[in-house]
Amino acid sequence: MILRHGSGAYVAGQRAGHSGADAWHVTVFVSTERHGAGYLSYSLLGFQEAAMLNNCSVTFRKRDYYEFYAPEPPLNLDVSATDGVAFLGEYDYRLRDLSLTAPAVGIEMERIFDGIVSPISLDPMTAAQLAAAYFRKHGKRAVEVLYFSGAPVFRRRAECFRLVWNEFGPVGMKEYPLAPEPFLPTDPDVGLLFCGGSYCETCAQYYRQVTGRSMPDDFTVLSIDGKALLMPGYTQTSTISIDWRAAGETAFQELLRRMRNPSAEARRIYIVPKLNEI
User: Distance (Å, rounded) from C-alpha 50 to C-alpha 54?
Assistant: First the structure.
């Protein structure tokens, strides 16, 4: 057995197809953007801990999301010498295609890329049901849903909520682009569902600048992802979230399953979220 010192101590053992001195090696793509450093940093921690316990070394590739908008030629991922790949964040809307010989997992991804990626995220239908119960509890007659137009995982959450809320009242769907203008709410009878904590915080800060008041004090606001619980300085807002550290552990275990069995099919894994009401 070997100890490898770096980000941590890794104990290497023998596995099928490797010499006794080799361990599993995984490449992890993680963003350095400020907004990506919240709940995804918790998933990264869970992934790292699981990797260390399973004799796996990890190489980090910091790739800010904007790099995936670069013109031709396409961005070279350079992951040929690896046993598996992990994407932490909504990378699937930034990748036009994905050609890998190694299996991959994607936390907060929606696309499977012809069976290459196992997407892992919170269950959007359970989130929709929790959100509908929350707005009904607060007596809302209608709900405005705000979601990032480019990310398939956010779009899925918005569509699931619309499907559930149609039974109870009107629902508006408001898309915002990559560089959004802040949304200023005006109708206290309409609930606000943000399918992303970063944009919720952007609007909360803008509302405070304009009115001098806290947006959650004047409106019934709910976000999905849990950043309000994890990010220092974020406006305290009710949120629907999962244990992102556990999601990172789940991502590694799924990747390990597929590395051990190259013929294993990719799976879509949804984790049941819970409502954290402020």
Answer: 6
Do 116 and 6 fall within a single domain?
yes
What pLDDT is attached to residue 214? 96
For 60, counting Cβ atoms within 10 Å of its Cβ (0-12 exposed, 13-18 middle, 19+ buried), the class is middle
Going by C-alpha positions, the residue among 10, 24, 4 that lies closest to residue 81 is 24
Residue 275 lies in a domain: no
Task: Give the domain CATH number at 205.
Answer: 3.40.50.2300
Residues 75 and 160 in one domain: no
d(CA 98, CA 109) in angstroms, rounded, equals 13
Does residue 73 have a cis peptide bond before it, meaning omega lies within 30 degrees of 0? yes
201 in a structural domain = yes
Task: Inform me whether the pLDDT recorded for 64 exceeds 60.
Answer: no
Domain range spanning residue 94? 2-120+243-269
230 and 210, same structural domain? yes
* 88 three-class SS: strand
- Per-residue pLDDT band for 37 (boundaries 50, 70, 90) equals low
Pick the closest to residue 226 from 217, 236, 218, 216 (CA basis): 236
Q: Are residues 165 and 225 in the same domain?
A: yes
Q: What is the pLDDT of residues 79-122, one digit of tens each?
A: 777 899 999 988 887 777 788 889 999 999 999 999 999 999 99
For residues 119 and 109, the answer to whether their CB atoms sit within 8 Å is yes
Highest mean pLDDT among 18-32, 34-48, 124-138 belongs to 124-138
Q: Are 185 and 205 in contact (CB under 8 A)?
A: no
Q: Among candidates 97, 68, 102, which has minimal Cα distance to 85? A: 102
The domain total for the chain is: 2
